């Protein structure tokens, strides 16, 4: 191989975290992300992070993820190159990448339901290569990227790729939290905590956090939870009811775990007229106790995050009214992503919430 060819190869490769089937991953060479359609942009990643969903993928829970896929759907970076059809972004712009790719033009996008875009939705780090890499191709760049200031605190803003829009849209907005409401959030992980922080936009009277991990409940208290319930003993329903007015239950129950028991807890604690807002990604069927719920005037909602609230959340973070970076507990170099997965995979022991990857 001549030196010239060697150089060429180097320029056209990048490092990325690659999935090789359940339990197998590696930080390895891949062809450098490149423009495939005129509406694409290529982003040089400066900050990324690992999501609970990535751990699901690594367990093999999402069979559509194929061997060789680059993981990651959250990130910030600098625009490296844009296709000829991209009008809103140019080389050198600093951008936030939405975890949901959307064309902005199809029927579902026109309904602000980007999660069900006919040519997008959640595909990044799932059906197409993702953000745990030196470079990433973002389809439909004009509608899937957001400008952020060049001096933005990336450890804060990266939380707006997924975690905050998810907690806010699927939990807080769907739960229709109102001033004075009593809210319970089942699950005090990053998503539950994002719901906790954004629920406070609406001044609920009480926010009760439920989890089995005492450390996460303590964190929740510092984030504004008024009460906490440790559900290790399996008696969370009784404990939450005892904390509510006349034992009637809560106005809004947010499910932020994605397992049958936490959805059952929500059904057990919902007051007449209440709303159960599911956020969790469920892999198993859950029982719905209609014999107890049929006359209670409740609503149950589900949603895949649309990320339509990113522009609003950007303003709230920029104004200092939402301290998004406090969800980040660990910072790793992007090249140490395998080590970061280990820490995130042992979240309870490591007291990890979000682990941040810096290039
Ligand atoms: Zn995520
Ligand atoms: Zn669309």
Helix content: 25-40%
Major sheet description: 7 strands, mixed
Low-confidence sequence ranges: none
Mean of all residue-level pLDDT scores: 96
Number of helices: 14
**What are the bound molecules?**
zinc ion
Euclidean distance between termini CA atoms: 30 Å
DSSP strand tally: 15
Give me the CATH architecture of the largest domain, please. Answer: Alpha-Beta Complex
Characterize the overall form: globular
Structural class: alpha/beta
If you compute it from the alpha carbons, what radius of gyration comes out, rounded to the nearest whole angstrom?
21 Å
CATH uppermost class of the largest domain: Alpha Beta
Order of helices and strands: HEEEHEEHEHEHHEHEHEHEHEHEHEHHE
CATH superfamily of the largest domain, please?
Medium-chain alcohol dehydrogenases, catalytic domain
Taken together, the total number of domains comes to 2
3D structure, described in words:
The protein has 359 residues and is an alpha/beta fold. Helix 9 runs parallel beside helix 10 (260-269). The radius of gyration is 21 Å and the shape is globular. The chain folds into 2 domains: 3-162 and 307-358, Medium-chain alcohol dehydrogenases, catalytic domain (Quinone Oxidoreductase, Chain A, domain 1, Alpha-Beta Complex); 166-301, Rossmann fold. It is 29% helix and 24% strand. Strands 3, 4, 5, 6, 7, 14 and 15 form a 7-stranded mixed sheet that branches. The protein has a 6-stranded parallel sheet with strand order 10-9-8-11-12-13, sandwiched between helices. The chain has a two-stranded antiparallel sheet with strand order 1-2. The model has no long low-confidence stretch (mean pLDDT 96). The chain starts with a helix and ends with a strand. The protein has 14 helices and 15 strands. The structure holds zinc ion (2 copies). One zinc ion (ZN) binds at residues 51, 53, 73-74, 99, 162.
